[in-house]
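User: structure tokens for this one?
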Amino acid sequence: MSSKSLPGSLPAHSVDTPTAQRGSSSRVSIPATVRTDENRRWRRLVHGLLPFALPVLLIAVWQLLSTTGWLASQILPSPAQVLEAFFRLLGTGELISNIAISAQRALSGFAIGGGLGFLLGAINGISRLSEKISDSSIQMIRNIPHLALIPLVIVWFGIGEEAKLFLVALGVFFPMYLNTFHGIRSVDPGLIEMGRVYGLSRIALYVHVILPGALPSILVGIRYALGIMWLTLIVAETVAADSGIGYMAMNAREFMQMDVIVLSIVLYALLGKLSDSIAKLLEKRWLRWNPSLSRK
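Assistant:
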């Protein structure tokens, strides 16, 4: 009886077949999952490197034109010459000193002007009376190019640190003021009314409802103000300074050191990009609740 198959039972080899098929299918699915993960990693890597593709291409074309003689070094030095100047000034310590001085001026002016712009924008955004008193005067001053005040600022402050701080603070004040004011006035009135219904005090209403609602506009103001900050500092250091990146460029101009001049311009561009990247990171961190940012 043991040597015969039971009625209705399947042969022994037919029982093993599904098991073998299941084993083979499981072995195939594992490499497919691994390939999917690898594809995702490659996609993330490509997306991360994509913003650098155009700058690298431009530098490569720049170097090629300089090597072939299409660009004379007296007009525009090659990237290799600029890199050589970078290491030369880095070795003497002059580069680090000038970068540190310029960064300190920029951040100090941004803290003063940005802080005042945020404070006044918040006050005028909440108080209609304060807006009527001060907003018209602010708008008139805003339409005066602040860089046109450089001769007057030099008469007031000389070429000391006060002149640079004043110009940078004045430049970043207006973007912060306007975006803070606009952000507060753009908060949904229904949210404010809901906060009052729930019994929030005026301070709690501002902290938990008005300020978060205005935060996207405020962060846009920060990014815009950071660009104005470096633009103002460049002009201020090339006109009235005895140190900093702008002074380094103007001093190099006297001796026709084109590689140092281009290096100064590249440093300003890199510092501006670094500031903007930090602002974007803060934007992603502080606005995680925003659906438009969470999809990025």
